[in-house]
Amino acid sequence: MNELNISAKITVYSYDELSEVEKNLITAARLSSAEAYAPYSHFWVGAAVLLANGEVLTGNNQENAAAPSGLCAERVTLFGTHARFPDVPVQMMALAAQTRGAFTGSPITPCGACRQVILESEMRFGKPIRLLMYGRDAVYVADTVQTLLPLHFGQESLNG
């Protein structure tokens, strides 16, 4: 028997330690969370991306009474971004969530499906996406989504 040890490097910052660009992107995600459609979960998530061309685009979760029909903020944002700017890589993504009138204390992290979609965006352009996961108490930063999805399924998996 062999053992495979996997570790993840996540840097933990206070909001004040971030660069102005990172703070601005988190602000965009926070503002976008207020526009989410979350009448069932009451968990409003916003996402913002910074593109290589300097554009900042946002999105938020969109729920539906037929639960599987909704979509997370990360996927809304990335799918809309790639529809508008199909040839421009995403450099950075910020996430923020609020519930019961306040932003979450702990950083919000992407679900598994969103991690896979962010990874596909990284692989599409061959460039990592810096991921900022905001919480009132801390901000988690991953230099690539592969940190959050180390045993990922990608193009190489399809080729055997």
Q: Can you put this structure into words, describing what you see?
A:
The protein is α+β, with helices and mostly antiparallel strands and 160 residues long. The protein has helices at 20-33, 73-84, 112-125, 155-158, and strands at residues 11-13, 43-51, 56-60, 90-99, 102-103, 130-134, 139-142. Strands 1, 2, 3, 4, 5, 6 and 7 form a seven-stranded mixed sheet that branches. The model has no long low-confidence stretch (mean pLDDT 95).
Binned, the helix content reads 25-40%
Which structural class fits the helix and strand makeup? alpha+beta
Mean pLDDT: 95
Cα(first) to Cα(last) distance is: 23 Å
Number of helical regions:
4
Number of strands: 7
Q: Specify the biggest β-sheet.
A: 7 strands, mixed
Short description:
This protein has 160 residues and is α+β, with helices and mostly antiparallel strands. It is 28% helix and 24% strand. It has helices at residues 20-33, 73-84, 112-125, 155-158, and strands at residues 11-13, 43-51, 56-60, 90-99, 102-103, 130-134, 139-142.
